[in-house]
């Protein structure tokens, strides 16, 4: 079983991934943020480092999905390979921070990789509005996220909505998290589990 958690920066993906893995006794797979050699440079100068960052993420995610499928284990994954292309690279292209040449190059590599990748058995989209995202990002206090603008988060949210509305790779569960506090309120986490388990019964 392979469940993937998707959503904008600050939506709660990593936290929910950790909680679900613990609840089910499954393995958690996280985004390679702490060891990413380009992330701080990217937030300091997006136009200069956007292509290098996106290629790094794409390679890292492809390797991760390959290992997930080969392991035969039950996995909860933080983010997917699809977001790299449909959300972040496309948004950087729209903002003029990724040249047309680089975006075409990136897209051709993504399409090739996608042909070797199986979609998760269940994709969970954590839907959140921008004020809630800003509050969560501020609360966790990562230095390299301090320069993220509201405009950037808004553009990403639009990309997520567009991508999710057309997602046909596999089963999809949308959870609106603005009114939920699944860390502090057990009933909110219980609600999410009920939603997931109602979907999973059709996966076995």
Automatic annotation (TrEMBL):
Question: Where in the numbering of this chain does the Deoxynucleoside kinase domain appear?
Answer: 3-198
Record flagged with keyword Transferase: yes
Q: Origin, by domain of life? A: Bacteria
State the signal peptide span: none
Active-site residues per Swiss-Prot or TrEMBL entry: 78 (proton acceptor)
A Pfam match: dNK
This entry carries the following GO cellular component terms, namely:
cytoplasm
Q: Where does substrate bind?
A: 31, 43, 54, 79, 84, 145
Do the record's keywords include Protease? no
Which terms are listed as keywords in the entry?
A: ATP-binding, Kinase, Nucleotide-binding, Transferase
Q: Where does ATP bind?
A: 7-15, 180-182
A GO molecular function term, named singly, is: ATP binding
Similarity comment text for this entry: Belongs to the DCK/DGK family.
Q: What is this protein called?
A: Deoxynucleoside kinase
């Amino acid at each position: 079983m392979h469940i993937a958690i998707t959503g904008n920066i600050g939506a709660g993906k990593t936290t929910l991934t950790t909680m679900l893995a613990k609840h089910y006794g499954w393995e958690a797979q996280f985004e390679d943020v702490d060891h990413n050699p380009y992330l701080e440079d990217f937030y300091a100068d997006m136009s200069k480092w956007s292509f290098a960052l996106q290629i790094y993420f794409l390679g890292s995610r492809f390797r991760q999905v390959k290992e997930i499928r080969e392991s035969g284990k039950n996995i909860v994954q933080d983010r997917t390979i699809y977001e790299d292309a449909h959300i972040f690279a496309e948004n950087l292209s729209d903002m003029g921070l990724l040249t047309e040449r680089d975006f075409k190059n990136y897209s051709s590599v993504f399409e090739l990789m996608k042909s070797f990748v199986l979609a998760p058995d269940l994709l969970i989209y954590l839907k959140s509005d921008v004020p809630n995202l800003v509050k969560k990002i501020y609360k966790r206090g990562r230095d390299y996220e301090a320069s993220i603008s509201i405009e950037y988060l808004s553009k990403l949210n639009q990309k997520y909505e567009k991508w999710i509305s057309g997602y046909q790779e596999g089963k999809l569960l949308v959870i609106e998290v603005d009114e939920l506090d699944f860390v502090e309120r057990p009933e909110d986490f219980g609600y999410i589990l009920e939603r997931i388990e109602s979907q999973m019964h059709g996966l076995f």
